[in-house]
Specification:
The chain is α+β, with helices and mostly antiparallel strands. The chain has helices at about 10-20, 30-40, 70-85, 95-105, 125-130, 135-150, 160-175, 180-195, 200, 240-255, 270-275, and strands at about 5, 40-45, 50-55, 60-65, 90-95, 110-115, 120-125, 150-155, 205-210, 215-220, 225-235, 260, 285, 290. A hairpin with a 5-residue loop joins β3 and β4. This is DUF2156 domain-containing protein.
Length: about 290
């Protein structure tokens, strides 16, 4: 199997297979792959009309084949490839529907384990916009206080305001990134590249100004027929309500006609998990790993 590094010129072919998958997962996006390719050392190939990614960040691991064809031939080819290279076959980005397929078509062949830390949180856009009812009372108060406190505005991110947005990101980095935190620094790098390459990647962004200063921004895209994914969201926690207002307003302006929003995973951070659960997700997109027995 011939795996190649992910390049900008690969967008069309990768998009083709990811759209066939029609998934709500935040990982089913060329933008996500392209922005994180260097951190995860991502490569890809097309085998038996299915897209497969390989990461060599921590030993070789392969994505469950992506597309609308049967994955059986691609999985058998992967098995032969790993045997030839004397390496174990490990799969990542295994979803519940993939688990069901494996249990039906390859029973007992793979050991599957799901990782709660990597599950995507899916919400109804209408609920996060309206913030109605007792369970959203606190969120509504944060938004209302922000609106009353500041002379504020929402702006789509364009070439005219991107420098202000980048300046806010760099200031956020100074406040939040410790020198040795590799993942946080990678996150900032990814955020910067997403802003600079948003048009090529098909991303849309929005920012919040408070008294003229950028205090929050978000970047995302429509991932399938009914779901928006928010890949990046940054706000100054020192500005009360900044996170709450960008959460709401990005959906008001960028999720028109869409039912769901994917706000990605919590990476196992207790504070982040608490925050995501406090918005009452409709369901999770669970992701797991499979190992050839």
């Amino acid at each position: 199997m011939d795996f190649q590094p992910v390049k900008a010129s690969d967008k069309e072919i990768i998009d083709k297979y990811m759209k066939k998958a029609n998934s709500r997962s935040c990982d089913m996006s060329f933008a996500a792959v392209y922005l994180w390719k260097d951190f995860y050392l991502l490569e890809y190939t097309v085998c038996e009309d299915m897209l497969i990614f390989r990461t060599t960040e921590d030993g070789s691991s392969y994505s469950f084949p992506i597309g609308d064809a049967s994955p059986e031939k691609a999985l058998l080819a992967l098995e032969a490839h790993c045997k030839e290279n004397e390496e174990p076959l490990k799969l990542h980005c295994v979803y519940r529907e993939n688990e069901a397929w494996l249990e039906e078509h390859m029973p007992g062949k793979f050991e599957i384990e799901f990782d709660r830390d990597s599950a995507d949180y899916i919400y109804e856009c209408e609920k996060l916009i309206g913030l109605k009812g007792k369970k959203f009372h606190g969120k509504k108060n944060h938004v209302n206080k922000f609106i009353k406190t500041y002379d504020w505005a929402y702006e789509k991110i364009t070439d005219d305001n991107i420098d202000d947005c980048l300046a806010m990101l760099y200031k956020w980095k100074e406040i939040n990134c410790e020198p040795g935190n590799i993942e946080k620094h990678a996150e900032v790098c990814v955020s910067e590249n997403a802003l600079r390459e948003r048009e090529f990647l098909g991303l849309k962004g929005g920012l919040i100004r408070a008294d003229g200063e950028v205090v929050a921004f978000a970047v995302g895209e429509q991932i399938n027929e009914d779901t928006l994914v928010v890949h990046i969201e940054k706000a100054f926690s020192e500005v009360p309500g900044a996170y709450a207002i960008i959460n709401q307003q990005f959906l008001v302006h960028e999720a028109d006609g869409l039912k769901y929003v994917n706000r990605e995973d919590d990476v196992g951070e207790p504070g982040l998990r608490k925050a995501k659960l406090s918005y009452h997700p409709e369901f999770l997109v669970e992701k797991g790993f499979a190992r050839l027995v």
